[in-house]
Design a protein that fits this description.
The protein is mainly alpha-helical. 78% of the residues lie in helices and 1% in strands. The chain has a two-stranded antiparallel ribbon. Helix 6 crosses helix 9 and helix 8 packs antiparallel against helix 11. The longest helix is centred in the middle third of the chain and has 54 residues. It is globular. 55% of the residues are buried.
Length: 406
C-alpha cells in the first residue's frame, strides 16, 4: 500500500458532499469546544466567583477524559452506523453545555467540563475522521477540507458565543451552543454522514485488509507513530498555551495577538495541506509539519522583536493546523483499515495524554530554567525527534500477502 495508492483521482459530488458535511460538523463541535467554550468559561468564572486558576486543571482533565472516551467510542462505530454515534454525542453535548452554564462551584466546573469532554468524543475528530477514512478513497482531500472547516468554526463560534453572552447572558450563549450541536452536528450527521456511492467498476476501500491492534503493537512502526505523535502534540499544545507568556517575556505585542496569529495560520496551514496532499505523500507533510514546528520554537526562543515572535507563532500555527491530520492519515497508510478504530484510538489516547500535560511540563521547565529560552529550544529538539519518528513510521507499509509490515 503506497502513500499515493489510496488517493481517488476524481473529486466526485458524493465526496464533496461528505467533505462539506464533515467540515460543518467538525467546525461546530471542535469550534465550540476549542474556541466557544473558553468564552463561556470566562463568563462563568466571573459570574460565579470561581478562581480562574481552577480552569487550567479543569481543562487538562477535560482533555484527558476526552482522549479516553474517544478511544472507546470510536469502536462503537464498528457496531452501529457512525451517523448515530455522532448524533448521540451531539445531543449529549447539548445537555452538557446546559449543565456547564448552570455551574456555580469549582467541583461542578470539573464535573461538567469532564462530561462535555466525554460527550464530544462521540462527535469529535477521531470518530468523524475514522468514518471518512473507511468510506472513501479520497480520504486525504475529504479530511483536509473537514479540517479547514474545523479552523473556520473556531473563527465563527467564539464571536457567536460572545454575542450570545451580550444578548442573553449565560443562558443566551448556552442556547446558541445547544442549537449548534442539535442542528449543525446531530441533524447534519443523520442526513449527510453517509458512505459515498461508488462509481461502476471502482473498488471500495479495503476495509477487510490490515493488521489487528495486537499485531500492530509488535511492530516498530506502531511505536514510532505513537511516540512521534505524542511528542508532537505534547510540545505543540504546550507552545499554544504558553505563546502569550513567551511574547510577554519580550514585552512585545498585545495579549490577544499571539493567539490570533496561531489561530489564523492554523487555518492557512490547513488550506495549504489540502493543496499539498493532492500530490504529496502524507509522510512528507508529516515531516514538514514537525520541521516547521521546530523552526517556530527556535524563533520563539530567540524572541526579542515583533517580526521574530510573529514568524515563530505563525510557524507554530501552521503545525497546529496539520498535526492531527497527518497522524490520522498515517495510521491507515501503515496498518490498513481492518482494525483502524482501535489502532487510531490507542494513538489518539496517548496524544491526548500528551496534550493534557504539555503545558504543565513547559511551565515546570520554565521555573527551573528561569525563563523560556532553554525550555522552548528543548521543545524544538523534541519536535524534530517527532519528525524523525513519524518519517520512520510512514516508510513502513502493510503487506496484504502476509499481513505484515515491510
Amino acid at each position: 500500500m503506497s502513500a499515493t495508492a489510496t488517493r481517488q483521482p476524481l473529486w466526485r459530488k458524493d465526496d464533496r458532499t461528505l467533505a462539506a458535511a464533515a467540515a460543518v460538523l467538525l467546525g461546530t463541535s471542535m469550534g465550540i469546544l476549542s474556541y466557544g467554550q473558553p468564552v463561556l468559561l470566562n463568563a462563568i468564572v466571573q459570574a460565579r466567583s470561581i478562581p480562574a486558576t481552577q480552569l487550567d486543571s479543569a481543562a487538562s482533565l477535560q482533555c484527558l477524559v476526552n482522549a479516553l472516551a474517544s478511544a472507546v467510542v470510536v469502536v462503537l462505530c464498528r457496531r452501529m452506523p457512525a451517523r448515530r454515534v455522532v448524533a448521540g454525542g451531539a445531543l449529549a453535548c447539548a445537555v452538557a453545555v446546559v449543565l456547564l452554564a448552570l455551574t456555580r462551584t469549582a467541583w461542578q466546573l470539573y464535573l461538567t467540563m469532564s462530561l462535555l469532554g466525554i460527550a464530544i468524543a462521540g462527535c469529535g475528530t477521531l470518530v468523524v475522521s475514522t468514518f471518512v477514512i473507511k468510506s472513501t478513497l479520497s480520504r486525504d482531500r475529504v479530511l483536509s477540507v473537514a479540517f479547514i472547516g474545523s479552523s473556520a468554526g473556531g473563527m465563527v463560534w467564539a464571536p457567536i458565543v460572545g454575542w450570545g453572552l451580550t444578548a442573553g447572558g449565560l443562558t443566551g450563549a448556552a442556547a446558541l451552543m445547544v442549537l449548534g450541536f442539535t442542528l449543525l452536528v446531530a441533524v447534519n450527521a443523520l442526513v449527510f454522514l453517509r458512505r459515498p456511492a461508488l462509481p461502476e467498476g471502482q473498488a471500495a476501500p479495503p476495509v477487510h485488509d490490515g493488521m489487528m491492534l495486537r499485531a500492530a503493537v509488535r511492530t516498530t512502526a506502531f511505536w514510532a507513530l505513537l511516540v512521534g505523535s505524542t511528542l508532537l502534540t505534547l510540545t505543540q499544545l504546550a507552545g499554544v498555551y504558553h505563546v502569550l507568556f513567551v511574547w510577554q517575556e519580550s514585552a512585545v505585542g498585545s495579549p490577544a495577538l499571539p493567539g490570533a496569529v496561531v489561530a489564523a495560520f492554523a487555518g492557512i496551514g490547513r488550506l495549504a495541506a489540502e493543496l499539498l496532499l493532492r500530490s504529496w505523500p502524507t509522510t512528507y507533510l508529516a515531516v514538514l509539519t514537525c520541521v516547521l514546528q521546530a523552526a517556530g520554537f527556535v524563533l520563539l526562543a530567540v524572541g526579542g522583536t515583533m517580526p521574530v515572535l510573529f514568524a515563530g507563532s505563525a510557524l507554530l500555527g501552521i503545525a497546529v493546523g496539520n498535526s492531527s491530520l497527518v497522524v490520522l492519515l498515517l495510521a491507515p497508510q501503515v496498518f490498513g483499515l481492518l482494525d483502524i478504530e482501535r489502532i487510531s484510538g490507542a494513538i489518539y489516547l496517548w496524544t491526548g495524554i500528551g496534550a493534557s500535560c504539555g503545558a504543565i511540563v513547559l511551565g515546570l521547565l520554565r521555573q527551573e530554567a528561569g525563563g523560556y529560552r532553554l525550555p522552548v529550544l528543548l521543545f524544538a529538539l523534541v519536535s524534530a525527534v517527532a519528525g524523525v519518528l513519524l518519517r520512520q513510521s510512514g516508510q513502513a507499509r502493510f503487506t496484504r500477502s502476509n499481513s505484515s509490515i515491510t
